[in-house]
Amino acid sequence: MAQPSGGGSVKIRADIAELLHAGLSDRAISRQLQLRTSRIRAAREILGLPPHRPGPTPAATPEDLFWRRAVPTDDGHLLWPGATQGSGARIRHGQERYSPYRIAFRLRYGREPVGKVTSGCTHAGCVAPDHVEDRPMREQYAAIFGGAQ
Ligand SMILES: [Zn+2]
User: Fold this and answer.
1) Which domain holds residue 70?
2) Cα(24) to centroid of ligand 1, in Å?
3) Confidence of residue 54 (pLDDT cuts 50, 70, 90)
4) Predicted confidence band of residue 55 (pLDDT cuts 50, 70, 90)
């Protein structure tokens, strides 16, 4: 469908608006969606949302830290620096440490994972929320597709 151009209204992508309303920083959103921060900032202004406090924000959520550090690949994965070396990858937030896999899982499914969370795709160390799975999901896939038995 052709977009009318030159009209008075400005269209904001739904995914940008959703993340802005979720309270993520411009930088976190630009990283997640692979867009320029200037574009996110413009959308924030149009929506009338207050600017995200710039600079280091100690009160940033673990989810915010997740998006800041995760590295998107060209083919749709999200890599966690160091995650391929084992399960030592952690997000430090205040006194707590979080597994980026578990954060990715909660972002996608809105619940706590059961058991260990691993990459469900072929990319080792991938923490893309759409690609991670917990133990019940692995068991379910094995039941459907047949595990090697
Ligand atoms: Zn992946």
Assistant:
1) 58-149
2) 22
3) low
4) low
